[in-house]
Amino acid sequence: MLSGCRRALPAALRLAVRGWAGGGGRRRVSTSWSPVGAAFDAKQQRSRLTGQSTGLFGVPELSSPEGFQEAQEKALQETEQLVQKACTTPPGPQIVMIFDQLSDALCRVADLADFVKIAHPDFAFREAAEEACRNIGTMVEKLNTNIKLCQSLKQLLANKEVMDSLDPETRQVAELFMFDFEISGIHLDEEKRKKAVDLNVKILDLCNQFLIGAHLPNKIDKHILPEHIRYNFAVEGNYIQIAGLHADCSDDLVREAAYKIFLYPNAEQLRCLEELLTSRNHLAQLVGYNTFAHRALQGTMARTPEKVMQFLETLSERLFQRTLKDFEMMEGMKKKLNPQNSKLMPWDHPYYSGVLRAERYNIEPSLYCPFFSLGACMEGLNFLFNQLLGISLYAEQTEKGELWCEDVRKLAVVHENEGLLGYIYCDFFQRADKPHQDCHFTIRGGRLREDGEYQLPVVVLMLSLPHSTRSSPTLLTPGMMENLFHEMGHAMHSMLGRTRYQHVTGTRCPTDFAEVPSILMEYFASDYRVVNQFARHFQTGQSLPKIMVSRLCESKKICAAADMQLQVFYAVLDQLYHGEHPLTRSTTEILKETQEKFYGLPYVPNTAWQLRFSHVVGYGAKYYSYLMSRAIASMVWKQCFVQNPFDRAMGERYRREMLAHGGGKEPMLMVQGKRKRRIVLFL
């Protein structure tokens, strides 16, 4: 999953470029680098303890929560200067560069704050970061409706002679900046522009509120639950707190209780969702779109909600018969294990699909975990990137105050010829108040700076892995290993999307293309030739037997149709919520109808799954992107890597033709020349 700004004056935190040997030169090797595998299997990697605190991510102001205010003020002062400069500069490539600097100045605070507000263990830091996000976000919306600023860009776009002289990337970025103005209502009168700004700020607040509510536990009087299942949940006095679905629990009653209690409707959260959807629709119609989905899909590969629905309905039709067979198998297994209550329910799908896989292929996760220590998996990624792209990962010692938690690791990404490419901060371990969500955050996008130096990209990968124990390093299940590869795919996209402008660097591209590199990495994680390079028993050093890898890969086909059908249901629901308003029924009634039509398992009365649908915030009207990106990733795998997952020539081609462009080239142009499946041709 991705997080961070993408279009509306997107991200870049300007940190000092360290180890630079001069404009266009190679970055020097650092003596503070160490092997990546050992760093993750070690108990702890300490920062330097002496000297002055460098501040979060090396930003001096962020040595304390109060520093966010100082960082904001600096960003806003620089913004004012750049706006004046943009409004007085004649049409030319310099206009695009100034706009990109403007975006960089604001988002060097916004993107960092976007991460800190949900991940920092200190509440004061989270609170200060959230305030910074709101203030910078408000300024961004004001700039997106600034007539004079827009006029300077319009003059450039209207000058055919100058536009023809620009390189394709600069033209694309200029058009994207104009697109931001247009979807923000630049064409409206002053009163309506102000209303658009107010709506955007309101939507930002509602998104934050909804995200918080989506992760809050529900509690119930413990005496309501049978005594023999209470130990599965957190008990506080006379109450039991349920913070998730307990989908992997073997006790049907535990899963049923968790499902019904965790998804029980919360009136305040329901009001928040309804107000968010209504506000998004008002904004879309105010700036000239029929629905929010029409506005959100501008600039994507799909382009319109009609084509998205065509894609989803066709996919659902193709899955239908296979999904029914999957449900029949699950119900048969439930009847075998629980003959008294054999009807298949929504809380059964994840568990019984897993039971079927385990029974048919003997893939009990505990058999695999000893072969997947975190250090071994990181060495596996290191080997793969080295073979495909000439890239190595090194652990780098951090400075005092640079990290928000002592178990975070910092990786330097180094190319064999180009030197240091950027940094990945790995926030991999569970802790209190940390979201249980695997995610990639852009902290700083790469760009060519005014002094000729290249601003190195910085990202954070956030996972929720268990800590090491006295007897073993952190051990991953096959699913955790696959998720690690997925998120590292996003990180490599950020490292290698080396564009001139940070507005389109790395993952700053259409959402339905941004998931392609990450999903492609899942194919590598399922290939024995790749897994065999790193899967070693942490005690004996024995390689993971090929038959175990083969069974694991084959097992993924079991109930795959039902798993994908569930994703189709989520994607259709997302489209309906962001379609025509006012909604003809309540969000819960729409959920019930859509679940029965596009999923097949019955709706459970007095539940409201949509109130836990956190993707509605970052992926509003774009949840289909996972499915569309999977189709494209499958095509890339089969055409480029299925014969040899370590093919250097194909790796370089993949970098050159897809990763390197970020959002600076239309995704369909990058996909052209490859045989497109019918499912992709709907575009």
TrEMBL record:
What CDD domains does the entry give? M3A_MIP
Just give the chief location class: mitochondrion
Concerning Pfam families, the annotation shows: Peptidase_M3
The UniProt record lists the Peptidase M3A/M3B catalytic domain at: 246-673
Q: What is its EC number?
A: 3.4.24.59
Q: Name one GO biological process term.
A: protein processing involved in protein targeting to mitochondrion
UniProt keyword Transit peptide, yes or no: yes
Subcellular location field? Mitochondrion matrix
Q: Which InterPro entries match?
A: M3A_MIP, MetalloPept_cat_dom_sf, Neurolysin/TOP_dom2, Pept_M3A_M3B, Pept_M3A_M3B_dom
User: Which GO molecular function entries does the Swiss-Prot or TrEMBL record give?
Assistant: metal ion binding; metalloendopeptidase activity
Cofactor stoichiometry and binding?
Answer: Binds 1 zinc ion.
The broad enzyme category this protein falls into is hydrolase
Q: Give me the reactions it catalyses.
A: Release of an N-terminal octapeptide as second stage of processing of some proteins imported into the mitochondrion
**Keyword set, alphabetical order:** Acetylation, Calcium, Cobalt, Hydrolase, Iron, Magnesium, Manganese, Metal-binding, Metalloprotease, Mitochondrion, Protease, Transit peptide, Zinc
Give Gene Ontology CC terms: mitochondrial matrix
Cofactor names from the entry are: Zn(2+)
| The protein's assembly and partners | Monomer.
User: What is the recorded function of this protein according to its Swiss-Prot or TrEMBL entry?
Assistant: Cleaves proteins, imported into the mitochondrion, to their mature size.
Q: Which family does it belong to?
A: Belongs to the peptidase M3 family.
Name of protein: Mitochondrial intermediate peptidase
Starting at the broadest rank, the lineage of the source organism is:
Eukaryota, Metazoa, Chordata, Craniata, Vertebrata
